[in-house]
């Protein structure tokens, strides 16, 4: 059997194709370590993202329903969003939870980080769980975001994932990681 040793490609040029406010589209020219030839790749650059699994003292998952422009559908998700410049991911996760649900999350535990899609995105999704979250205020949506809180018994979460009612890939990955670790 023949095995190939995978090597890192050298980036020789970067050109910004578009600045779309929350992401940038980059054209990267990279040199193949096998042939020495340049090839063009397109990357969607973004800051890191966060997801939070907020669970109440009654073992209910605090979910949000929101309209998503990509699929043009209303989705069932957990709170999440972008990490602001200079902000720690754990702080961003608690902030996003408060903004999107009105629930305060303390004592967050890390579920680790994953790459959203390493073929296109260089960033990471940091996932956390918080137990005993409590409602402390109103939802603080921006003009372009509207969320509605839905409480789901944790016992129902695996079925929602299997049936595809929770079908956002990054949300599903975060929830499956929580379920698999038994946290």
Based on the model shown, name its key terms:
three-stranded antiparallel sheet, globular, four-stranded mixed sheet, 12 strands, single chain, 183 residues, alpha+beta
Briefly characterize the structure:
With 183 residues, this protein is α+β, with helices and mostly antiparallel strands. Helix content is 18%, strand content 40%.
Question: Could you characterize what this model shows?
Answer:
It is built from three helices and twelve strands, in the order E-E-E-E-E-E-E-H-E-E-E-E-E-H-H. With 183 residues, the protein is of the alpha+beta class. A hairpin with a 4-residue loop joins strand 5 and strand 6 (73-77). 23% of the residues are buried.
How do the helices and strands line up, and which of them pair or pack?
Layout: E1 10-19, E2 24-31, E3 38-45, E4 49-55, E5 60-68, E6 73-77, E7 80-82, H1 89-101, E8 103-104, E9 109-114, E10 125-131, E11 134-135, E12 147-153, H2 157-163, H3 169-181
Parallel strand pairs: 4-10
Antiparallel strand pairs: 1-2, 2-3, 4-7, 5-6, 5-12, 8-11, 9-10
